Amino acid sequence: MTLLDGKKTSEAIQNEIAAEVAAIKAKGGKIPHLAAVLVGNDGGSVTYVTNKVATCERIGFGSSLIRYEDTVTEEELLNKIKELNEDEEVDGFIVQLPLPKHIDTEKVIEAIDPKKDVDGFHPTNVGRMVAGLPAYLPATPAGILQLLQRYEIDTKGKHCVVVGRSNIVGTPMSILMAKGGYPGNATVTLCHRNTVDLAYHTRQADIIIVAVGQPGLITADMVKEGAVVIDVGTTRVPDASRKSGFRLRGDVDFDNVAEKCSYITPVPGGVGPLTIAMLMTNTLRASKKEVYG
Ligand SMILES: Nc1nc(=O)c2c([nH]1)NC[C@@H]1CN(c3ccc(C(=O)N[C@@H](CCC(=O)O)C(=O)O)cc3)C=[N+]21
């Protein structure tokens, strides 16, 4: 079994970007700038956004963090998005999800200028991805493609079973794996909460990508010998022995599944760090106007 080292892969991508930023600086070009909007004080969201801003600093990007209490109105948030859309210093920005219930998430996403939508969540970018046009790819699926590519994992003609149909991971992942090219050209099955006999499907899989948020959902008996297993789950579970008071758990019963498969991503240190790296890649593409010209 080979561990797919997301931390190392993410660092390699970040080093590549940092070198490009240094070259841009040397030529006196515009430094890429990412802005992040964070609403509320949820521990997970704060950690992720802090991580994103720290990564910007490390690779030489400009960054700004815009924070609101969770009492912020939808109108205030939409006004800030309009401002960021028009701010020429800002190449790309994200609004960290989830948002409080009184805010319409779809409306917020659709207010973002697709040219600055480095999360790839706007319907324009989703549509362009489906049509095979240049688009910002959502960071987690793009990160999984990078892992497959950098570990030279064969995908052509393989049976890929995606578990979970979220807009952010499962649905785009299923589309990208079925597309032509590499990584891609797989035969894809998309499983979700209404799937009858999940284990029947996962046992057929050469590649399993699971993004559900249910710790331990995928057990060893559900995995074919030699399969590739990609675990996107990052559920925070209480753990009194940790300073933080919690630990991260994936959707895969790692210890037992690892014995059976050819490649597996750990949690933490698997897909998560790639998500950050691909957000940086998208921001660099935004600053170079690679997608929309
Ligand atoms: N607009 C928006 N864009 C997002 O990209 C977005 C979001 N909202 N909402 C929440 C999810 C989740 N997400 C993660 C990013 C990094 C790690 C990550 O770096 N994880 C580390 C561990 C980090 C830790 O210790 O908590 C790892 O798995 O090794 C995980 C999850 C981005 N998301």
UniProtKB/TrEMBL annotation:
InterPro entries: Aminoacid_DH-like_N_sf, NAD(P)-bd_dom_sf, THF_DH/CycHdrlase, THF_DH/CycHdrlase_cat_dom, THF_DH/CycHdrlase_CS, THF_DH/CycHdrlase_NAD-bd_dom. Keywords: Amino-acid biosynthesis, Histidine biosynthesis, Hydrolase, Methionine biosynthesis, Multifunctional enzyme, NADP, One-carbon metabolism, Oxidoreductase, Purine biosynthesis. Its EC number is 1.5.1.5, 3.5.4.9. NADP(+) binds at residues 164-166, 234. The keyword Amino-acid biosynthesis applies. It comes from the Bacteria. Pathway: One-carbon metabolism; tetrahydrofolate interconversion. One of its GO terms (biological process) is tetrahydrofolate interconversion. GO terms for molecular function: methenyltetrahydrofolate cyclohydrolase activity; methylenetetrahydrofolate dehydrogenase (NADP+) activity. Residues 4-119 form the Tetrahydrofolate dehydrogenase/cyclohydrolase catalytic domain. It catalyses: (6R)-5,10-methenyltetrahydrofolate + H2O = (6R)-10-formyltetrahydrofolate + H(+); (6R)-5,10-methylene-5,6,7,8-tetrahydrofolate + NADP(+) = (6R)-5,10-methenyltetrahydrofolate + NADPH. Residues 138-290 form the Tetrahydrofolate dehydrogenase/cyclohydrolase NAD(P)-binding domain. GO terms for cellular component: cytosol. Homodimer. Belongs to the tetrahydrofolate dehydrogenase/cyclohydrolase family. Catalyzes the oxidation of 5,10-methylenetetrahydrofolate to 5,10-methenyltetrahydrofolate and then the hydrolysis of 5,10-methenyltetrahydrofolate to 10-formyltetrahydrofolate. PANTHER family: C-1-TETRAHYDROFOLATE SYNTHASE, CYTOPLASMIC (PTHR48099:SF5), C-1-TETRAHYDROFOLATE SYNTHASE, CYTOPLASMIC-RELATED (PTHR48099). This is Bifunctional protein FolD. It comes from Pontibacter korlensis.
